[in-house]
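sry for the spam today, last one i promise. struct tokens for design, 384 residues
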């Protein structure tokens, strides 16, 4: 086929417009990383309708909604059987999904659900294989706003896997409803290189988190190098939060929250919001930290330096300030330092401690803070 110059230009414009539309769709629902609560880490398969309603109530009454948490997500184990027409129904623990969605929406919140491209979910319930369009239409009709699509029993090579995610993305798109598409396949097959291409708004980059300092550290500190693959509309996901579930110390949970915010990670609380302590709530609703996670520039932080167990991570922010995480992965309190020059500043800088909520004043040269074992200090640094 022979293309004239103007036809070529027209085609290029078209490609550009399609690309812009695809980006805009992603940015629409996830211009900043998604925030909310998910049932999995606390309830696993024990979740039911009334538990979810109680968590939605607590999301509002605790002040978490006001701090930015928006989605209430039912993870695995809600599925029942398909009827003769192939339509998937919830099991007896979820008598009416549409009514649950309406309840969540009535609180000004959004509703998320879970499925798999395989025949079965990870917990052995019905997956969407062969029913993608039908399930997407059902989910949209119920009023869902988020779909976590979890690889589980899907069998196929990387190409087939990518096609399966694309298929569900297209099915969601066809419903005309804005639905955040959360890819979950544990970081296999370099998902960060194709997740955005198949319409993913986030993709798991790690194994499942557990409520332990070791696994949380592997997931979080292991994200270095993946920063180049994210931006508004599409994010790396080192898995949901364990803050408040009891398996880590307060300093370890501070590390968890600090790291996830520096990583521009989705923030899905995974604890029981109806009984959480004041300390847990303070960690989850630290607005200065949340502002780092939700910063509109959308740049994921990365490791600037490491000396044994001491690490410095930085994340550039829209107002030209820099968020700095000082981490101590060692077994006793130690000072962690970084020079303002290494952060890209010349002359004096102004420094604020985001856990102490305190201005530390103007500083020059080296910034050093004592950091407790397994703890973190997060600073916001700007030109003076
Ligand atoms: C996988 C996912 C978890 C959770 C469970 C549910 O393990 O990685 O986040 O969704 O499945 O079965």
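last one done:
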């Amino acid at each position: 086929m022979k293309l004239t110059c103007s036809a070529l230009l027209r085609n290029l414009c078209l490609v550009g417009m399609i690309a812009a539309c695809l980006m805009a769709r992603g940015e629409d629902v996830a211009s900043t990383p998604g925030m909310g609560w998910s049932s999995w880490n606390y309830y696993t398969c024990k979740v039911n309708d009334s538990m979810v309603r109680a968590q939605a109530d607590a999301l509002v009454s605790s002040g978490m909604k006001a701090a930015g948490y928006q989605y209430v997500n039912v993870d695995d184990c809600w599925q029942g059987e398909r009827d003769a027409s192939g339509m998937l129904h919830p099991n007896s623990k979820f008598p009416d999904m549409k009514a649950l969605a309406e309840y969540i929406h009535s609180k000004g919140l959004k509703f998320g659900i879970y499925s798999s491209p395989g025949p079965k979910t990870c917990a052995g319930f019905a997956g969407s294989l062969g029913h993608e369009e039908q399930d997407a239409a059902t989910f949209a009709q119920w009023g869902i706003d988020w779909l976590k699509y979890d690889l589980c029993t899907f069998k196929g090579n990387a190409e087939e896997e990518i096609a399966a995610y694309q298929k569900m993305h297209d099915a969601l798109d066809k419903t005309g409803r804005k639905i955040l598409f959360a890819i979950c396949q544990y970081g296999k097959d370099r998902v960060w290189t194709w997740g955005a291409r198949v319409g993913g708004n986030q993709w798991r980059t790690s194994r499942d988190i557990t409520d332990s300092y070791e696994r949380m550290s592997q997931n979080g500190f292991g994200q270095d190098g993946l920063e180049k693959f994210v931006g508004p509309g599409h994010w790396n996901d080192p898995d949901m939060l364990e803050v408040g579930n009891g398996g880590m110390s307060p300093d370890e949970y501070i590390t968890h929250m600090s790291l996830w915010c520096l990583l521009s990670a989705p923030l899905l609380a995974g604890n029981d919001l109806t009984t959480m302590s004041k300390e847990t709530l303070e960690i989850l609703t630290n607005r200065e930290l949340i502002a780092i996670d939700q910063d509109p520039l959308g740049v994921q932080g990365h490791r600037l330096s490491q000396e044994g167990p001491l690490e410095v991570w930085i994340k550039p922010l829209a107002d030209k300030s820099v968020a700095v995480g000082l981490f101590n992965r060692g077994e006793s309190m130690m000072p962690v330092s970084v020079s303002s020059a290494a952060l890209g500043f010349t002359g004096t800088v102004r420094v604020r401690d985001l856990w102490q909520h305190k201005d530390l004043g103007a500083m020059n040269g080296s910034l050093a803070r004592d950091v407790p074992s397994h703890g973190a200090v997060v600073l916001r640094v700007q030109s003076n």
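Residues 356 and 377 are 9 Å apart (CA to CA). ok im logging off now
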